[in-house]
Amino acid sequence: MSDVFLSPLTLIGVGASFAFSTVFYQNYQQKILEIHQLKEIPSFQVGEHLQKILNASPEKRLHYVAVEGVVQPVGEPLVSQFVPRCYGVVQKVTTQEHWKVLNYLGSWVSKTMNGKESSRTVPFQLVQQGSYLDRVMVKVESPLEAKGDYLEQVHRRFRKAEDGLLETVVQTVSGEKLTAREEREELLRVGTVLTGFGEVVLERDGAMRLQPPRDGRSFILLPGDHRSFIRRHENTAGMWKGLTALFSITGSTLLAAFVYSAVNNDNRRR
Fold it and tell me: Which end of the chain has a smaller Cβ tally under 10 Å, C or N?
């Protein structure tokens, strides 16, 4: 049985385990650094406390902070094109066609063509969670310039193309055939808890505005509160740490088994 661990496959397994462990550890270190940098960014909830801090700042602005609040339209919201009684402040509608294309080997391969995307937005603001007076709010400027997966998919539909006899003949001759049409709608819905990373400015009338930073840092909008955002990063770091430990233990176990088998085999020969 000990001869099994003297196989070259054991050494390959040892090397692969330690290699994966090194990669996972580097990912873990990178994620820890990212979490540390995120925690250094000041975080505020929409409210009078943020307004007082802004008012006390020399330029009446905070150059890069995280602001958390609930999405509320300024005026009439956008209405979903496909879902009844579904309202939002940012809307993106995407349509595209799925085709099969005949390649030079004579086999059909999938291809996406004729994609179209339209986006629109209405003015909106962030208000304090659980507040019914909405006396303090933060206007959000240029949301379409923001990074982050802050839109919720509210509709998606595939419609298969009809294959008539004439269409089949034409498609076979041309080497292309339409298989389906896809339509998708995404919304930043009214009432969503949103966290924005950017510059906050206090305007002359006392209103606050969240906008893209002037120093070139990323303007980011993310669904959920700030604490949940940090927790997701910590969970990812925990995953990389666990994988690092798993592959380190696996590599060490295989290496120990290899050394033990080699020594045991040498003793038997003696």
Answer: C
Tell me the β-bridge partners of 131: none
Tokens in use for 197? Answer: 């990373």
Give me the helix-helix angle, 8-40 and 226-269, nearest 10°: 160
Give residue 105's Cα distance to chain centre: 37
Q: For every one of its 270 residues, what pLDDT tens digit does the chain have, with 9 covering 90 and above?
A: 455 555 677 777 778 888 998 999 999 999 999 999 989 999 999 988 898 999 888 888 998 999 999 999 998 999 999 999 999 999 999 999 888 887 777 777 888 878 888 999 999 999 988 765 567 889 999 999 999 899 999 999 988 876 654 455 555 556 777 788 889 999 999 999 999 999 999 988 878 999 999 888 999 999 999 999 999 999 999 999 999 999 889 888 877 877 777 666 666 666
Q: Please give the model's pTM, rounded to 2 decimal places.
A: 0.79
Six-digit token string for 33: 């650094």
- Residues in Cβ contact with 133 at an 8 Å cutoff, skipping those fewer than 6 apart: none
Please report, for the chain, how many H helices and E strands are present, in that order: 4, 12
- Reduced to 3 states, what is the DSSP secondary structure of residue 27? helix
Q: Measured in Å, how far apart are the chain's first and last C-alpha atoms? A: 18
